[in-house]
TrEMBL record:
One of its GO terms (molecular function) is hydrolase activity, acting on ester bonds. Pfam families: Lipase_GDSL. InterPro entries: GDSL, GDSL_lipolytic_enzyme, SGNH_hydro_sf, SGNH_plant_lipase-like. It comes from Prunus dulcis. Belongs to the 'GDSL' lipolytic enzyme family. This is GDSL-like Lipase/Acylhydrolase superfamily protein.
Amino acid sequence: MHQTWPIMVEKKGTLVIVELALLLLLPLLSGALDIVKAREIAARYNVTCILVFGDSSVDSGNNNFIVTTIKSNFLPYGKDFFNGRPTGRFSNGRLATDFIADAIGYTKTIPAFLDPNLKLEDLPHGASFASAASGYDDFTANISSVLSLPRQLKYLMHYKVKLRKLVGQKRAEDIIRTAVFVMSMGTNDFLQDYYLDPTRPKQFTVEEYQNYLVSCMANAIQTMHRLGGTKLVVVGVPPLGCMPLVKTIMDTTTCAENYNKVAVSLNSKIQEKLETISTTSRMETAFVDAYGIIQNAINNPALYGLSETSKGCCGTGTIEFGDSCRGLETCTDPEKYVFWDAVHPTEKMYKILAEEAIKALAQKLRV
């Protein structure tokens, strides 16, 4: 039987946040749910805007416009995006947040806030403030000279100023209040920070560092709430030990369990904190179990039409990502692959993530 992975949902009272999370993850339906349902939910809660924070899993191109080496605005990245155009997304096509926007019917992509070509009239439907290589820990972002989470939140303030000028203060406040905030990060805090740089291991044990990351997340959520946010979906950390790059470094053909245990533990702490936040504030929160969904796809690829779970589509698929993937040959059919490069998922995997999440939510809603 096709297993679905649960999504932990925190909410005081009703199932409103479940429906909001359902709306968020509806994008990538391949018949799992009718797109009409997404638009019904959007209309019911007046959701027209998605605001995105995080790392390369949700960066739609902000790093193109800052001084950093962490970029993907070159082929083969984006080869399956509209017109085969690289945009700075670390995948072959669209990200989950792009499909989210498409599902509710206002735009087919979520633009990068720093893109100078961003049109003011597109602001009411959302923006991504995310920055590849960022994390909950400011130090993680500083290592690669990318946008830290507090910096991303400062750009949210700039967004609000522009939005007020465009639609007026009351309408701007309403848009922020009904917007769905998405936060997706945590991977780089370990893979590019704790396990590579000596600074944090001297200051924290692994568990202490996880607690520190969760406190950084909680501070960010407080800021979001203060700026008018009321609805938040947090995407959990994926199975770090199953990334092709990690397996290459660890010289193993199977997932590195010590890395996976760290991801499981961090996700558990994130869920606990979200539960506390949802019961002590008016912030509605939901948690998406990316770990379980990706792990299930790796363990049962045939269920999803996949066949390659051990390496990425770019180059050898074992070490290349970012600049080392530039101009390389790719696999003939990325639809069969979990990973696009040695770190990041394919567009197909983003679809699987959403489809499995939708199934779990539909069970809760009896949809």
